[in-house]
Amino acid sequence: MSTRHGHGHGAHATPGHAGRRHRWRLRLAFVLTAGFFGVELVVGWITQSLALLSDAGHMAADVVALGAALIATSLAARPDSTGRRTYGSYRSEIFASGLAVLLMLGVSAYVVVEAVQRIGDPVELQGGPMLVVGAIGLGVNLAALLLLRGGSTESLNVKGAYLEVMADAAGSGGVLVAGWLIATTGNVIWDTVAALAIGVFVAVRAVLLGRQVLDVLGQKVPDSIDVERVTADLAGIPGVHDVHDLHLWTLTSGMLVATAHLVADEGAPTQDILESAKAVLRDEHGVLHATLQVEPARSRECHELDW
């Protein structure tokens, strides 16, 4: 009996690319965010509001992150003409998410440092313009959040943009609160307090997203997958004696990948085992791309690896 190999994509491989399906959301969010960024930057510069300038800085990071996400989804959908990228360019979306993390951390650090340095400095601020711009910014952010929310649970790339905009919405809310407090109390310390709160919030969101990015790049088993259950389901296929060298990872959001060696009982139909294993991975665990090897129990060609 010869060893059989199978390379399965599943019945719905193309829809597995989550970022492509939600590209229109990124495009609209990009237009909204880029349009408001200039307004906030100019008003922040005129009023010398650190809260407005910090929020404008984060808005700029949003523009870059959304633009990178758009470019990444375009690259991911582009066929490889070199023959060297055997997995295509799908990982470009994960790199775009990593860029969003770096931008968020950079903006957060800048805002916190500037806020600390300003403590005690005499600054004259106008609460009125802060209230107006903060309210408009919050409206823009909420519109972008509604656009991106639908894809944030499926695509890490879209989630990175979603968290960017969420942090910016919190920033706009902080600007609103600071503007109201300054207008009612006359104390400009609230501008610094709002800036610090924005900086800390952005940093926390960045760290959480960064962990997910590193999990994908490190080829960690996705949280939605139970390795023991996958092994048990494959071992339960009629004719399968043993399962080893099972590896599960995420290529990009919505595209789970697996490889495994299945040891067949003596005389078991290897082709039937192969097809059943593909169906189990696809239908029970959402793995649309699987490379499987079925080998007879007496085979000495394959040895279990220790990684």
TrEMBL record:
<feature type="transmembrane region" description="Helical">
    <location>
        <begin position="160"/>
        <end position="182"/>
    </location>
</feature>
<dbReference type="InterPro" id="IPR058533">
    <property type="entry name" value="Cation_efflux_TM"/>
</dbReference>
<dbReference type="GO" id="GO:0005385">
    <property type="term" value="F:zinc ion transmembrane transporter activity"/>
</dbReference>
<dbReference type="InterPro" id="IPR050681">
    <property type="entry name" value="CDF/SLC30A"/>
</dbReference>
<keyword id="KW-0812">Transmembrane</keyword>
<feature type="domain" description="Cation efflux protein cytoplasmic">
    <location>
        <begin position="222"/>
        <end position="296"/>
    </location>
</feature>
<feature type="transmembrane region" description="Helical">
    <location>
        <begin position="128"/>
        <end position="148"/>
    </location>
</feature>
<dbReference type="InterPro" id="IPR027470">
    <property type="entry name" value="Cation_efflux_CTD"/>
</dbReference>
<keyword id="KW-0472">Membrane</keyword>
<feature type="transmembrane region" description="Helical">
    <location>
        <begin position="188"/>
        <end position="208"/>
    </location>
</feature>
<dbReference type="GO" id="GO:0005886">
    <property type="term" value="C:plasma membrane"/>
</dbReference>
<dbReference type="InterPro" id="IPR036837">
    <property type="entry name" value="Cation_efflux_CTD_sf"/>
</dbReference>
<keyword id="KW-1133">Transmembrane helix</keyword>
<dbReference type="InterPro" id="IPR027469">
    <property type="entry name" value="Cation_efflux_TMD_sf"/>
</dbReference>
<feature type="domain" description="Cation efflux protein transmembrane">
    <location>
        <begin position="27"/>
        <end position="217"/>
    </location>
</feature>
<dbReference type="Pfam" id="PF01545">
    <property type="entry name" value="Cation_efflux"/>
</dbReference>
<feature type="transmembrane region" description="Helical">
    <location>
        <begin position="28"/>
        <end position="47"/>
    </location>
</feature>
<keyword id="KW-0813">Transport</keyword>
<feature type="transmembrane region" description="Helical">
    <location>
        <begin position="98"/>
        <end position="116"/>
    </location>
</feature>
<dbReference type="InterPro" id="IPR002524">
    <property type="entry name" value="Cation_efflux"/>
</dbReference>
<feature type="transmembrane region" description="Helical">
    <location>
        <begin position="59"/>
        <end position="77"/>
    </location>
</feature>
<keyword id="KW-0406">Ion transport</keyword>
<comment type="similarity">
    <text>Belongs to the cation diffusion facilitator (CDF) transporter (TC 2.A.4) family. SLC30A subfamily.</text>
</comment>
<dbReference type="Pfam" id="PF16916">
    <property type="entry name" value="ZT_dimer"/>
</dbReference>
<protein>
    <submittedName>
        <fullName>Cation diffusion facilitator family transporter</fullName>
    </submittedName>
</protein>
